[in-house]
Amino acid sequence: MSVQQNQLITDRRIARTKQFISEAFLALLLEKDIEGIVIKDITERANVNRSTFYAYYSDKFDLLDHMVKDKLTQLTALIDADRNESYIPDFNAPDPFFVLLFSHVEENEAFYRVLLTRINPATAGADYAAFLLGVIRDTFYARITALSMDQKQAVPLDLLLDYISFSTFHMARKWLEQRMVYSSRHMALQLTRMSILGTYDAMGMLRA
């Protein structure tokens, strides 16, 4: 067996071990708060020894940090690969970004349920949910800056970005809290329609 083949086998074994550890930690985080979890809980759930855990992570917070960064890097890569600068809003077709975002959250429900509803920033040492908010904000910023110079915003850019990114982020969080009673596509379509209509028109205040 070649050196390259041996390295590939080793890399796969390491990746599989890290996956077992991450999945075990995620399952525990769905059951109890992070401060109530010790390394022994994680290693026993993952069926690995303590030395294996410490070969990759310094503590449970380091593990959480890696998990969040890996997942949001994956989301960012999906957004970059699917970026459509020529998107034209359509009332009857969901915005591709909303589709991608809510589908990704749905496919990784356990992770995002922990990230958005179970992690206390004061305990975890970082506001990890804010990292997702940053990804959403950056996506809308890229879309706005790709517009031609004559397509000027009617309100200050910073306020516009705050409004659309916070509303999208909190809709995703509420959707998870309510056990995703609507499909991801339905959520994407409704956010698209609310974005097209604007708040007052969606409330019916601008209709005769």
UniProtKB/TrEMBL annotation:
Residues 15-75 form the HTH tetR-type domain. Residues 38-57 bind DNA. It comes from Paenibacillus glycanilyticus. Keywords: DNA-binding. The keyword Nucleotide-binding does not apply. InterPro entries: Homeodomain-like_sf, HTH-type_Tx_Regulator, HTH_TetR, TetR_C_Firmicutes. It comes from the Bacteria. This is TetR family transcriptional regulator. Coiled coil: none annotated.
